[in-house]
Amino acid sequence: MLTLKDIAKAINTRLSTAIPEIPINSTDVREGFERPSFYVDFDEANRAPVFTWATERTLQVIIYFFPTSQYDYQIEMLDIQQRIEDALDGTIDLVPDGSFKAWIYELETTKVDGVMQTGFEIHYIEDKDEADDNTEDMEELILNLEGDETIG
């Protein structure tokens, strides 16, 4: 089963591959941080069962970018915004081997107090582990279509 930690690693990998010169903070930004740097956070996370066979998850992700200067940052932010948008266009591999992908929806960027915030939503449906499935597979289907002819 995919964990939030797996998703965070996938986002950080995509970000560090696309923009390797900018480090990603892993500690709370209220504790201080270097400039320039990124900080990745999950804002809202929803998880719901899909019948008995799957789990649906929607996750709101925010990437914070702290530019080199607190006062002169417009061109740097435009460059980083474009590179983030290019890196997060379409899908993201949530596991390293590429066997599980998720769509990235509604990439939005805002700038607040000299910090750029790029938000997007990840949505996916994951089959539950077979080890957790105690139901019996159907082996034979007998179907009666209009009358007494039985197909089976």
Task: Lay out the secondary structure.
Layout: H1 4-18, E1 24-25, E2 37-50, E3 54-66, H2 74-87, E4 91-93, E5 101-112, E6 115-127, E7 143-144, E8 150-151
What oligomeric state best describes the polypeptide chains here?
Answer: single chain
The structural class is alpha+beta
The CATH architecture can be given as 2-Layer Sandwich
Main beta sheet:
6 strands, mixed
What would you give as the CATH superfamily? Phage tail protein-like
CA-based shape: elongated
Classified by CATH, the class is Alpha Beta
- Number of helix segments? 2
Helix content: 10-25%
Main sheet strand line-up? 1-2-3-6-5-4
Give the H and E element order: HEEEHEEEEE
Average pLDDT, all residues = 86
CATH topology: STM4215-like
Q: Quote the distance from N terminus to C terminus.
A: 36 Å
* Domain module tally: 1
Strand content is 35-45%
**Number of E-state strands:** 8
Q: Using the CA coordinates, give the radius of gyration.
A: 22 Å
Briefly, what is this?
This protein is of the alpha+beta class.
Please characterize this protein's 3D structure:
This protein is an alpha+beta fold and 152 residues long. It has one domain: STM4215-like (2-Layer Sandwich), CATH 3.30.2000. The protein has two helices and eight strands; from the N terminus they run αβββαβββββ. The strands form two sheets. Strands 1-2-3-6-5-4 form a six-stranded mixed β-sheet, with helices on one face. Strands 7-8 form a two-stranded antiparallel sheet. Strand 2 and strand 3 form a beta hairpin. The two termini are 36 Å apart. 14% of the residues are buried.
